[in-house]
Every structure is written in structure tokens, then in C-alpha cells.
Amino acid sequence: MRQTDHVSVTVPYLRIMKAEGRKIAALTAYDVSFAQAMDRAGIDVVLIGDSLGMVVQGHKTTLPVSLADMAYHTACVARGLERPLIIADMPFLTFQGGLEDALRAAGALMQAGAHMVKLEGAGPVLETVAYLHARGIPVCGHIGLTPQSVNAFGGFKVQGRGERGGELRVQAHKLAEAGVDALVLEAVPAMLAAEITRHVPVPTIGIGAGRDCDGQVLVMHDVLGLNTRAPRFVRDFLAHGGSIEGAFRAYVEAVRGGAFPTEAESYAS
Ligand code: KIV
């Protein structure tokens, strides 16, 4: 075990990991027991995703998730963590209605225990990113398949194929300029994600975005084989790990060693 494995993961530390080519292993969590198991397993970043609307609450999309839901689950998770960086999702409609509203929502998540908030999209979101960044709130961007826009996309579909890739490249650069400290790339071709990763100064964390991102994130339930309609970028680590904590350890090892995701678990251009 390296000495740095004991260091708390901070925002500047993520940049060091990118600079040193050390992969970031991230998972979603929604409660204290799973969060503690992730910490013991060496997970670097824990995301309280609004995916909780689907995997915890049973909704078909993330749209019904409220700020109170996110703050509650963020507090539950944060109580269980020592080393990982904690990112909390800003739910649908908490950052589209004005800068002050966004600041209040982000503040509530930080007070619940988050170290960083995540906002989906670019365009009108850029001003909000810059506003939060200027007020000392670290922000993670999220582009590609942004689940809060599932209705606009007409389903959970791969984004950025062919000429649409240019749009995502521009969004990534603009988000970095606006002040994001990390960037989630979801369901985009592996080559495009690799190119964005090479050119933006902030760490990219991929989900269905190929092995060349600076890190990987998956929904916890998917890693534990609970998704009966899993997309191609999901791997059941419980099958190899033998236990829940073992599955998290196997995931960390596969991400750090570059064994996850494979080409078959990624999208072509
Ligand atoms: O809500 C979530 O879990 C997410 C990840 C899938 C990146 O945003």
C-alpha cells in the first residue's frame, strides 16, 4: 500500500492524481454502511448521485428527486467517510432558476457534508458554475448523457457520436474555463472522451466513456449486479469480489490497474 492511500482526497489532490496518471476510482453511495465499506475498500470519490431516484426510490428517472432528498442522503453518506472526496448532485430544477437559488441549494449540500457539488449540462449552466466557483464551492461538471435531460434526448442514449462530438469538446473546454474542478463524461465514445481528457486541465471521470478518462464512476447497485437491464459499461464486481466490500476492492483494483473498462464495455465513435 502506498503512503498516499491514507491521505484524504481533496480537490487539489484530484489534480495531482491526473498529473501523475493515477486513476480515480469513484462510486455512488446513498447510506452510511455502504459508504463505510467503500472507504475501507479504497474508493477515492463517493458521489451521492440523484440516481438515488431510480435505484433507491423506484422512479423511472432522476427528475423527481428533491433537494431535501439529496441533503438527507448526503448527510447519511458523509457520516461514514474519512478518506474519500464527497460529491453531491444538484437535483433537477435547483440550479436552473437563478444564481441565488443555485447558491442556496449548493450551500445546503455542502452543509450536509459534500466537498463538491455536481451540475449537469453546459450552456446556461456555465454562469452558475462560475458563480459557485467564485464563492468557494467546488463544482463538478457532467456532460454527454445527462439523465436530467432524458426527455429531451428521447431516452438514455449514447451522446457525442460523429459530428456531435465537437459540441461536447466545446462544452468541456467552456466548463473548465468557467471553473469546474472535475468533469463527468457519461455515455460518450471512448475516443472522444480520451481526447477531451488529454485537452482539459481538470480530471475527467467517465461512466461509459472508455478507459482513457482520468477516473471511472459507476452506480453502486450496478457494481453489485443488481441491474437486470445493465448497459454495456456496467460490470458485476460482486461475482469476482465474493462480498460487498470485496466487490468494491475488485472495482478499485480494476480501475487503478486499467483493467476496467475494456473496449467491449465502451462505445465506439
Ligand atoms: O446520479 C448519478 O449517479 C450520476 C452518475 C451516474 C455519474 O450522476
In short:
The protein is built from twelve helices and eight strands. With 269 residues, the protein is α/β, with parallel strands linked by helices.
Can you offer a commentary on this structure?
The chain is of the alpha/beta class and 269 residues long. It has one domain (3-261): Alpha-Beta Barrel (TIM Barrel). The protein has twelve helices and eight strands. It has helices spanning 11-19, 32-41, 52-55, 67-78, 99-111, 125-134, 150-153, 164-178, 190-199, 220-223, 238-241, 244-256, and strands spanning 24-28, 45-48, 85-89, 116-120, 139-144, 182-186, 204-207, 215-218. An eight-stranded parallel barrel has the order 1-2-3-4-5-6-7-8, surrounded by seven helices. Helix 9 (190-199) links the parallel strand 6 and strand 7. Helix 8 (164-178) runs parallel beside helix 9 (190-199). The longest helix is centred in the middle third of the chain and has 15 residues, at 164-178. It is globular. The protein starts with 10 loop residues before the first helix and ends in a 13-residue tail after the last helix. The structure holds 3-methyl-2-oxobutanoic acid (KIV).
Helix percent reads: 40-55%
Number of strands: 8
User: What do we call the CATH homologous superfamily?
Assistant: Phosphoenolpyruvate-binding domains
Q: What molecules are bound to this protein? A: 3-methyl-2-oxobutanoic acid
Question: Could you say what the CATH architecture is?
Answer: Alpha-Beta Barrel
What is the SS-derived class?
alpha/beta
Tally of individual helices: 12
In terms of DSSP E residues, the strand content is: 5-15%
Task: Note poorly predicted spans.
Answer: none
Order of helices and strands: HEHEHHEHEHEHHEHEEHHH
Spatial order of the strands forming the largest sheet: 1-2-3-4-5-6-7-8
Write down the CATH class. Alpha Beta
- Based on Cα principal axes, name the global outline: globular
Rg (C-alpha, Å): 17 Å
Biggest sheet, in brief? 8 strands, parallel, barrel
Give average pLDDT, whole number.
96
User: What is the CATH fold-level name?
Assistant: TIM Barrel
Number of structurally distinct domains: 1
Q: What is the rounded distance between the termini?
A: 37 Å
